[in-house]
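Quick start: read one record
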Amino acid sequence: MPALPGGFELPASLRLTRVGSVDAVALEARAADLAGRSIKKESKLLALDLAIRCMDLTTLEGADTPGKVTALCTKAIRPDAQDASVPSCAAVCVYPNLVPTAVARLRGSGVKVASVATAFPSGQSPTAIKVREVEEVVAMGADEVDMVIDRGAFLSGRYGKVYDEIVAVKEVCGAAHLKVILETAELGGYDAIRRASLLAMAAGADFIKTSTGKAAASATLPIQLCMLEAIRDVHDATGRRVGMKAAGGIRTAKQAVQYLVQVHETLGLAWLTPDLYRLGASSLLNDVLMQLHTQRTGRYQSLDYFTND
């Protein structure tokens, strides 16, 4: 296995031919146990605040317009127009042709611009076209690139092709961070998810990400735990910290807190930062805002209080 960026190299025990199998029963039992953990009010307030700071607001629809993206960016900067104490979100994720709109609105705000690329969501384009698309979005000002792997190549055992594409994309990202989307629902099980996670990290991913949000199924707590354990194993072996992004199907504040608890218990406090953890969301924010208001004031606030953008 070639060296990781920065001179790190996966040890033999983590190479693709010897990644080991995942105990599905134990993994799911551990995920269920962590999901049932109760936390005190003060910790819940911190978790809700952190969920907002780690959130990537996302719009990836064929009907997206500059106006819609501008409104989403405004909400990412100031999630609650009535409460300046609510933090900004981490990033706004859009299609490539809307990157300039997001860049213009978010300039100076601290909120990052993320763009999907590499024939999202299918990943079914020639490598040269994928690389060119990434070059374009970086040139337009994207701070982060969310690429999707070629699942057809992965599922047919052509790991070298998947690896080489990630390496090629990473090379043209420059200063932009690379999130590698595995589309876990299409990989066929935890063993494959672990293998894909290790492959993406070996190729230079700054983050590994569960889903495009376009498949029939998206993130789940057991799937995130499988990926977190792969991140932990690479960190233990190399000292390298890779980020995690859970995306798709996370719609409630309760779910967001469960995902954060899992990160804390598996990777520790160092990962509880937007630099190393993200929640991909298009409909999560308002529920978190509602719960945050309720926790702070003791009064229920309906979703109608918040904007839909």
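The CA atoms of residues 221 and 259 lie 7 Å apart.
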